[in-house]
Amino acid sequence: MTTQLQQENTEISLALEEGDPLLWTNPMRVSNGMPGATWGDRKIDLEDVKSAASRFKRFAPVLSQLFPELIESKGTIESPLLVVPVLEHALDLAPGDGRLYVKADHGLPIAGSIKARGGIHEVLEFAETLAIANGICSSDDLSAIASQKARELFSDYQVAVGSTGNLGLSIGVIASALGFKTTVHMSSDAKAWKKDRLRNRGVTVVEHEGDYAAAVAAGRAESEADPRSHFVDDEGSLSLFLGYAAAALHLRDQLDEEGVVVDAEHPLFVYIPCGVGGAPGGIAFGLAHLFGANVHCFFAEPTASPCFLLSLLDKSGSNPSVYDVGLTNKTEADGLAVPRASERAVSVMRPAIAGAFTVPDDHLFAHVHTAMVCESIRIEPSAAAAFDGPHWLTASVAGRRYLAEKGLDTRMASATHVIWTTGGLFVPEAEYQGFYRRGVGLAVSRWDAIGE
Ligand SMILES: *Cc1c(COP(=O)(O)O)cnc(C)c1O
Fold this sequence. Notes:
Largest sheet: 7 strands, mixed
Order of helices and strands: HEEEHEHEHHEHEHEHEHHEHEHHEHHHEH
Oligomer: single chain
Strand content: 5-15%
Structural class: alpha/beta
Bound molecules: pyridoxal-5'-phosphate
């Protein structure tokens, strides 16, 4: 199908529509690297990010009470920043190209993916607001929020969400643990084990014919008809976005602890898998407020579902779907199989994002395999989407042009690269073995398909 898309760069647009892997760098990026300052009508800034981080902190004692797996971390839902010298070598990053780290959200507790950040934050905010309004607790003391009285209140309310899987897992687990009635609307292609895991926790799973966007629309419509239902809107929720953004503060502390400096002489490059754009957008928003022009965030999308890049390229303001340009949205990266981006995340990131690249499924499997062989990192295909990033940046024509334009080509020896791994903890072993085996052999030729 052809479209009326008014795209700025024909070469990039053609590659995108052909489903060829590509790196796009952002000509709209402003010199101070700052993102948009509004979410719809609402002004947003670093204070909002800090307030999401402080909500997680306030809830930590409650979370460690609800989830035994959080006792050790005292209720903190966070992931380590891993030093990965073997992977650095395997991804062809030469010493002169900088150092590589992995931000290991693939192991985030409770949800097993990056969705633990946004999804849990939104449910906590909803629970906190309800409990305070009903006199069960105050914002200084949330201890009663896991009490019988609170559960009784919450059992009168429903939390609903539409999801390809991971957001549903996150929302379903936290909402049901607090005592909410919980409904997850899933697309027909969502993985069976994710549906099973939710049903085992008493969550109602509704399956919808059609894709992720259809599941979201159905969930939204059903929830809107019920005043006691809170719909977690993956495409438009500020609470989700800020929950993700809080990760930036933690990453800054982790870089500090590692002795990593980020300034004009020491650029930071961050590569994050992208679906609707809420998770990578939130993180990039937070990082831009902390590091300004010295952080460069690149989003990674499947070649079959590059909805965020498509929306950035589109100047008509219609927020197109990947189907409009003849793409299939068929990818094994189920966490990223999204036909249409979050319009709000796109508009916040338009002036700040450094670039975006697309990844064929073969690369995802190759990287699932490489991550295990090199560093014993066990990830799902979606979580492997960012691994092509450092190579695109340092070895492709488009990447080198970006570095030269920003005056960074001579600073790369002191650069830091962070690959965000976004999911995998709860993938059943048999399923994981299938992904891993598909990556054997592909790993050797992984760069052949990367054009210039
Ligand atoms: C959802 C998800 C992402 C991307 O998040 P969006 O907010 O949809 O952009 C990345 N990786 C995994 C594993 C996910 O589940």
